[in-house]
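Dock nicotinamide-adenine-dinucleotide; give full complex structure.
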Amino acid sequence: MPMGEAQHVDAVVVGLGVGGEEVAGRLAEAGLSVVGIEHALVGGECPYWGCIPTKMMIRAGNALAEARRIPGLAGASTVRPDWTPVARRIRAEATDTWDDKVAVDRFTGKGGRFVRGRAAIAGPGRVRVNDQEYVAARALVLATGTAAVVPPIDGLAGTPFWTNREAVEAEHLPGSLLVLGGGAIGLELSQVMARFGVSVTVIEGSDRVLAMEEPESSELAAQALSRDGVTILTGVRAQRVAHSADGFALTLSDGRTITGQQLLVATGRTARLGELGVDSIGLDPTARHLVTDDRMRVADQVWAVGDVTGNGAFTHMAMYEGDVAVRDILGQGGPGADYRARPRVTFTDPEIGAVGFTERQARDAGLDVRIGHTALPSSSRGFIHGPGNDGFIKLVADGARGVLVGATSAGPAGGEVLGALSVAVHAEVPVSTLRGTIWAYPTFHRAIGDAVRALG
Ligand SMILES: Cc1cc2nc3c(=O)[nH]c(=O)nc-3n(C[C@H](O)[C@H](O)[C@H](O)COP(=O)(O)OP(=O)(O)OC[C@H]3O[C@@H](n4cnc5c(N)ncnc54)[C@H](O)[C@@H]3O)c2cc1C
Ligand SMILES: NC(=O)c1ccc[n+]([C@@H]2O[C@H](COP(=O)([O-])OP(=O)(O)OC[C@H]3O[C@@H](n4cnc5c(N)ncnc54)[C@H](O)[C@@H]3O)[C@@H](O)[C@H]2O)c1
């Protein structure tokens, strides 16, 4: 098809996931002529195959687990898991059967022009999609996110393995599941599946699951999943994959072979810059991520936001970076990106929330590290809660400045309790102020007070 005449606009946004939708919508609302390009679904990974449907699964799995805790607390219970309502909720409530009409209308309703297709950068300010070229006079915004990494394991390519996408779309669960990767995706989905009766084995290459977090978090997650019947293998890698009518067989680096009806690959994400044509604007197509400054700029009149920047692959980070980029593009000023208090929550049960530095990171940064730790079961609320009360609070303080630089909050409401700790790290609330704070009784968050006292 011959190329149409180039169309000139103020801004072109490539990728309308969480970050791109935020930027494109706000620029359009500000009166700029904006073309937003998306080759899959407007909204991106989070609403269709990520956060929202997986948290619906987790809500269902947690309901089963709570029902199983009734004996000893409130009588007797019989639990018969059924995936049907979960699949129905994901289809009907979360994803509209993977239809983005509402999101497209939301964007065009703000005045944006929507183009469905896979875009490639053709030079400074120039983007090609569907044999049409758009030229951005003011801003080119790259918000192309990431895709699941498929490791180069012998025999894996071409087999019908799952990534998060197929796991979310599943109408029926397998009898058994092998999970490659013990990060956030691997652990969250493993626990859900196990709670629905799937026999799950996690294969994690490093020596602990959730390896980016505190060792105490890894241990807690491993214990919790083991209690749900998940087998966790650490320090082993899959060397060969075979698939037959019976399912998958993995030959591991320790010589063992393990089998499962289905295989979930959850070994991280890749930004796939090579396909985007970033070399045409002087950026490295082999880089892992686009390197941004504190205004989210990657080159002259080019901004990047969200997972593609590698600054923390979370929806809240994509939205945060989107806000920084929009303010910069519109010349509105305000603070630049500040990553000191990056929060993250792994929604296992117990939830594992963390913000800022881990102890290791703080020590590596040469800080005068002080640690405050308290176990949740020994708090009043943990004691009251009984079954399912596992968790802890760990604080990482910089003794020289008397402020927290990091914290972990693990427990039944670990992600919620994290809120107070995020404020403390972000606003550099003095430890002396935290010490004098009144924490309501008997809440889970009151354990923060115990952990502050334990800082010494
Ligand atoms: C299973 C799972 C669970 C998750 N759970 C959570 C959670 O609980 N909390 C949380 O904060 N985060 C969670 N995340 C992470 C979250 O989904 C991402 O951080 C978020 O989606 C990033 O938004 P983004 O806009 O950067 O990228 P994406 O959402 O990936 O959007 C990028 C968009 O760009 C499009 N695109 C790419 N290349 C092109 C191109 N060349 N042309 C046109 N379009 C293109 C893609 O189709 C995509 O729609 C989860 C992720 C997964 C996979
Ligand atoms: N609750 C949340 O906010 C949430 C939930 C899910 C995903 N996410 C986001 O999505 C990102 C991706 O999640 P993920 O779990 O795929 O990645 P991850 O990077 O968190 O974990 C991947 C794990 O796979 C292991 N691994 C890599 N190659 C392997 C191999 N060949 N064999 C065995 N193990 C191997 C790694 O050591 C690592 O522990 C997360 O980092 C997070 O930013 C967030």
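Observed: The mean pLDDT is 97.
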